[in-house]
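[job 4471] stage=fold_predict status=RUNNING
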Amino acid sequence: MVEILIQGGDTEAATQAMRVAIKEIFEIDPLETRRGGGQLPGKRSFELLLVALAITPAIASAVDLASRSKLLGRIGRLLPKIHEQEAKTGAKFLIDVGDGKPIPAHEANRAQIEAALEHFAQNRKR
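[job 4471] inference complete, writing structure tokens
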């Protein structure tokens, strides 16, 4: 499962923009998980909210080359939208292709994501 992790800045605005982008590009509604965001006892501030938008396993678990290529193309279309939202909202984005090692979106490129997907696919075959 590919997850887009969003934290800090205007997390809500970034999350909504990414939900729209994922629906447009992947033609699915992402699964949303929220962590944190509750008020801390004795504090006026809030914990940092982390939102994970997951691209469903049916699309993200592309093991064969053709499926992986299509997934990479879609992720390639999503990256500029992520970069735009980072600049606009101040939120930080991470991309986790399923290996538990999120890549900072501002550093991510197609080659890094392809290598991470390949590594993940090889580990699934074992």
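[job 4471] summary: The longest helix spans residues 65-89.
[job 4471] exit 0
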